[in-house]
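Sat 14:20. Reprocessing the chain from the morning session after the first attempt stalled halfway. Input below, unchanged.
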Amino acid sequence: MKTKVFFSLVLLFCNLNAKSNIPAIKINSYNIITNVTDTSMNVNVTLSFSKLSDKALDQIDFLFSSKANVDSVKYWFGNEWISTSYKSGRKNSIIVYLPKYICETDNCKLMFVYSYPIELQKDSVLLLDRGHRWYPLILNQIFKYKLTTYIQRGYQVLSSGNLIEEIQTDKRSVFTWESKKPVFKLPLIVFNPSLYNKTQLSSQNWDLVSYSLKQDTTNIRKLLKQIDSTMNYYSKTLGSYSYKKLTLFETKEFRGINVGSGLLTIGKESLDMINKGYKDLMILTVAQQWFGASVFADFNKPGFFFLVFSLPHFLRLMYVNQSEGEKAFNKSIQRDMNRYRDFAGTEKDIPIINIDKPNTKEKSIILYAKGPWILSKIQEQMGEENWITFLKDLYTSSRGKVITFKTFTNYLTKNDKTGNAAKLLLKLVNEKGISGK
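Finished this time. Tokens:
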């Protein structure tokens, strides 16, 4: 059961399946306006970007859904929008052609105007995320954004970040979501709130809101209290939570959990598992709000999966240690390591730093079993106080940024008074089997 859920998280959390080419630009922010009807969504996207080199820029390749019907693409120059040419690239991509002179600053702009086909009924949900390519994007980039959605009255809109404005008129509603901190995903969820039970728990530092299907029997208030306790632990241990709210939205669209910044889209099967006592899944996804949805890892660099899965899994174990004691912590470590020992050092084993895709059962076990075990050895080497200082320093310095395994080891060295932690880490992540020495 655990391996199946782990793979669901891999697919939903990453939305990645191949190494990306080095992009020509860095997207800084989006300003997106959507007008949603029953059958289509009219979209206006203004994106601000910077060049990543001094070379002249004459075209930009974006990932973009082939379903979109593009009306125009324009660039900003001389205080006006000017139309430019474009064409569809490979599947789900678009190539925009530009005059070489138009982007000489760090504040270049493009505007896309298009329609996107949807089906939205009173008893259905519109759920779009990064994997749908519903807005033009570049792989492995984070960005700030503002999303304004116009919808007929009676629907509600969710996204990541913070809801900054909600306007209700006789015939329609307007929802504006914004994140002034960089995010990796820009989801859009439109739904009929009459189909859901809304449960809210407010604390001093954040609001927890759940939208659960009415036929669901989960004790949501109890779950929100558990999440609140977990968030308090990570806030004190790592640093403050990045948003004003964490929203949970239940869906039948998939089985796993899609982790966004301030938004957890939870498959009914996963929510049922949590309801039956599988709390590790809940703790893990909360930990990913700190490392995963606030501090991001570079997909193109070695150690990506170690940072996005092994590290949050160890953060989960740290909470287990705090809430249930050292015995429960050690039991969980050894239970998972027993799965790894079944093939440790064999041809099915691989150094964790070399995992570029968790596409086998053995690789996933290495990430959620051996990875946390490695980090437990680093914590032992440094001592708990220095380990916590290291995590706080890494989180507070890297929030809203993309880090690499090299970043991780640099901060480790900075906070390690023994001088040996980084050496031990490099040894353990580059070897097969179990040594710990």
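The first strand starts at residue 25 and ends at 36.
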